[in-house]
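re the bet — no i am not wrong, look at it urself. input seq straight from the record:
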Amino acid sequence: MISIEAPEIRVLREQASRSLVGRTIVELECGDVGRLARIGFINPDRLATLRGATVEAVRGRGVLLVLDLTGGHHLVVGPEYGGTVRLLDGAHPIGAAHVSIRLAPESTLQIRLTGMGTVYACSDADLDALYVYARDFGDVLAPGETCFARDRFAALLTARSIQLKPLFVGRQAVVAGIGNATFQEIAFLSRVHPRRTSGTLAPTEIDALYDAVADSFGRRVAAGGKIGFTALDGTPGSYPMAMGPDYRDKPCPRCGSIVERVSYGGGPTYFCPGCQT
């Protein structure tokens, strides 16, 4: 299961902006979404109200792709813990997809969640009340945007002296769209131990973390996303993560020490004990 993070959302947003704007929803079908609807990941009754709406704009931030539609409607898609969003030529049966949207001119947008995520229809009136939207489009930094400034990053990172992972992943995150996979990579690229607390960071280490976030984001977008990700047009991502489960019990690619795994902050974290301090 491949998590979808900020770089992959940027890839989807760029392709969707070119391919979906101006297209009208002709028909919308939900597949086997009973369990997902009960959990609150999908609202099939509201999705049905999108028929006849036209895509006016596409936005992407954090782990969310948002289609702004005519009539004050919005389709919020967030396959953050795994999923696919594909645009297919012509009409296609729903198959294994959770949501299949037939568009005019003739094409089909198919969305499938393989883990926790969101496929939600909202109006202007209730969009801001949707937790995931407020989280990712709120007052947090976003790589690739002008708000991602070095001084603001440093100020937010050091405002509280807590462990680093919650500052990058989860409800307290100061940067939108970073999951466990990216956190491991930026900690490795910056040579910072993942269990460090923000109050112990030197200015040079804060700069290194900032540069790692920006570098990881830029390289992944340029590569069409990380390996295992599939873009809207079916193109596979080609970016190899610099640290993660593929390196477990193997020599660190930088110093040769054996990569270790710790359970930390709700998931496994891989790091090099030799060059991450």
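see?? The first strand starts at residue 24 and ends at 30. told u. also Residues 8 and 77 are 13 Å apart (CA to CA). so pay up
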